[in-house]
Amino acid sequence: MPELTKRRRMLVLAIxxxxxxxxxxxxxIVNIALPSIRTDLNASVEGLQWxxxxxxxxxxxxxxxAGSSADRLGRRRTFQIGLVLFTLGSLLCSLAPGLGxxxxxxxxxxxxxSMLNPVAMSIITNVFTEPAERARxxxxxxxxxxxxxxxxxxxxxxxxxxxxxxxxxxxxxxIGLAAVVLAALFVPESRAPRPRRVDPIGQLxxxxxxxxxxxxxxxxxxxxWGSLETxxxxxxxxxxxxxxxxYEPRRIDPLIELRFFRSVPFSAATVIAICAFGAFSGFLxxxxxxxxxxxxxxxxxAGLLLLPMALVTALLAPVSGRIxxxxxPRVPLFLAGVAMCAGGLALTGLDRSTGYGWLxxxxxxxxxxxxxxxxxxxxxxxxxxxxxxxxxxxAVASTSRQVGAALGVAIIGSxxxxxxxxxxxxDLVSASRPGWWIIVGAxxxxxxxxxxxxxxxxxxxxxxxxxLFSAETAAAEPAMLSTS
Length: 484
Prior knowledge:
By secondary structure, the protein is an all-alpha fold. Helix content is 81%, strand content 0%.
């Protein structure tokens, strides 16, 4: 691919950020509308969990496949197909006649969404080749994550209160169509030098693993945690995981490149992403129910109360990117862990009369942590990897985020169901307290792993992993030339 001008590179970044805007916003915009969806479609807490997790589960299952497919078929082409499917799924969600149809159409959205973020990150990685410039671009990308996740509750609250919850899906349609056209005009096509083969067995194993764990957690309060059904689902997840560990290393082009995890920073970034996004998704789920069902706030007022959180996340994400570019990931990860712990800890004593000043301060503290965590996770995932592996590496990072989001809603929702027998307001406050402690624990994991994975010994493992793939790429190029 020829070198692009700086102006063209920034335009490509802006187009890729459009896809991130609608996918990120969709996560939070749906959360704020959950009470309205519950009332209109007569949904239980379990139904609300599936409204969120049907999207994140399918998204997490297909992200790695989308990343490797883009490396093979063309990143721009895959990106455009994803935009079309996501836009269509959004339109169908707005027309859903019942909860079951809404869940199905959310899955259609997720199929398209799986082709957006990891592919867009791969496009950015291939366009911004200079390390410092790439780090700054990723910082901007992280800022858009903060904007999208933060703007979602505001826009969702406004649309839900003035038009209705179906309008939250309409906003994706014009943005998606605009991104399709702009991508065709300005985004260069790119592929990996050696396309990866399709791995259908690995894909099925990943789907079984994630679906079994999520369904077992969501269904546990209803079926019973000691029931045969629950244990069978967890057993299926264990078998799928063991099969993955045995099968994937034997493939020339595995769906999940397990050798990536020889890098301590990469492995830690994966777990940090799961913990951070699990905490964030659980945080939003708990707050949505608390603010609207316990405190009886409207969707708009609940969204406005989260506005400071949105602003702080958006402002700190690019700052985190600049820190990563100049000083490495340790400082942002340390601050992220401390702030997330403090924000969650402040809400463990939440009750019906907690002051709004205390709530906002807690939200801001948590947002400081979440705003700092994205850039080091993403940068660690793609830094040091050869460009031919960019799609797969970025997809693993994105998958980790979505796995965390799905598990966060599943676990927190099940905590509420177990503690309150499905009640939405009566004993929600007391039932949610273990959920806040889980969020504190997730923040502590971010802190510990952030410090442990940024030392010299961890960096040496990352260098050895990068050398392994670089040597393979160098050895493959002469073979490709001799057969051409």
